[in-house]
Amino acid sequence: MTSSKKKGTLYLIATPIGNFNDISYRAITTIKNSEYIAAENTKHTLKLLNHLGIKAKLISYNDHNEKNQANYLLDLLQQGHDIGMVSDAGTPLICDPGYTIVNIAREKAIKVVSIPGPCALITALCASGMPTDRFSFLGFLPSTTSARQQKLKEMQEYPYTWIVYEAPHRILKSLTDMHTILSPERHIVIARELTKTFETVHSGTIENLLEILYNSKDEQRGEFVVIIQGKAKSSEVKSKDMQLLSLLLAEMPIKKACAIVSETTGISKKILYQEALKLKDKTYKV
Ligand code: SAM
Predict the structure, then answer these.
(1) 281: CA distance to ligand 1 center in Å?
(2) How high is the pLDDT of residue 76?
(3) Percent of the chain with pLDDT over 70
(4) Atom of ligand 1 nearest to the CA of 91
(5) In principle, which of 44, 91, 272, 281 could form an S-S bond with 14, CB 3.0–4.6 Å?
(6) Residue 3 predicted with pLDDT over 60
(7) Mean pLDDT, residues 219-235
(8) Measuring from each residue's beta carbon to the nearest atom of ligand 1, which residues come in under 6 Å?
(9) Ligand 1 pocket check: which of 95, 96, 175, 220 to mutate, most ligand atoms within 8 Å of Cβ?
């Protein structure tokens, strides 16, 4: 028999990433109406609540107490209490706590509502001038040099925009590793202190931006989002690529063959299409 008691709702509330004015009307209303606010850092959230003139019952919920607190909060939700969850900045669960409780809440058929708002990666991406139609977000790069370099090697050939978060004490190390592994010419964007007084968005080659940061201690301070251009598609068609294309053309339509070769080699479909037409032409002339 299922309980007829109405369960509470878990609201995931995005809060500003710097500028307190970047909070939505709905976020404010939801904070006011929630019976409890689960906060990553209660002191930090109190500053925002004071700014908004809101009093709330704050409960600490962070990476260190997540296991115990998730059970406590789930009990409250089962009993019918509404809970708002906020992180220190931006959207909860994006490099911030919340995954465990949301995952269990959904398993237990507890309603989860996400109140959209600021998120550093999206704010940076939109201002970057990099392609936004397809991208990957990696969170923070690993803190040890060997693991970080390994991750960069894995991403070296990735053909679309990719994004990482970075801390001030590691930004130079990460950029130096990118310089070595991805090449000095790769295009990147560094978005620093977004929405805050000293916001800067620099774009250029890794070489250029490393130089800017090396030459200014100020440019090394604050919070960073780094956006990396995907590896440009190759335009060189090698003889082994032509062999593969030729084999596939015998079995399938030209578009499909070009798409498969493009996926495996990174060569643009347009170039392959031209090569495929030449191959077909030759076949008919023989
Ligand atoms: N939940 C947040 C979000 O929605 O973006 C991210 C939290 S994560 C723990 C913190 C990292 O996000 C920072 O180290 C930095 O890389 C990035 N970040 C947060 N606020 C930022 C800002 N105002 N400017 C640039 N990067 C920021």
Answers:
(1) 55
(2) 97
(3) 97
(4) 4
(5) 91
(6) no
(7) 92
(8) 17-18, 87, 89-91, 94-96, 119-121, 165-167, 191-196, 223-225
(9) 95
Bridge partners of 186, per DSSP, are: none
Q: Which atom of ligand 1 is nearest to the CA of 191?
A: 25
Distance 18 CA to ligand 1 centre (A): 9
Ligand 1 centre distance from Cα of residue 105 (Å): 26
Q: How far is CA 110 from CA 2, 66, 87, 131, 280, in A?
A: 13, 18, 20, 37, 59
Contact 175, 209 (CB under 8 A): yes
Q: Distance from the CA of 88 to the center of ligand 1, in angstroms?
A: 9
| C-alpha of 112 from chain center | 21
Q: Whose C-alpha lies nearest to ligand 1, atom 19?
A: 120
User: Residues, the chain, total?
Assistant: 286
pTM of the predicted model as reported, rounded to 2 decimal places:
0.85
Strand partners, 39: 60, 86
Report how far apart, in Å, the C-alpha atoms of 227 and of each of 124, 127, 128, 216, 233 are: 8, 10, 8, 20, 18
The answer, yes or no, to whether residue 217 has pLDDT greater than 90, is yes
- How far, in Å, is the centroid of ligand 1 from the Cα of 171? 13
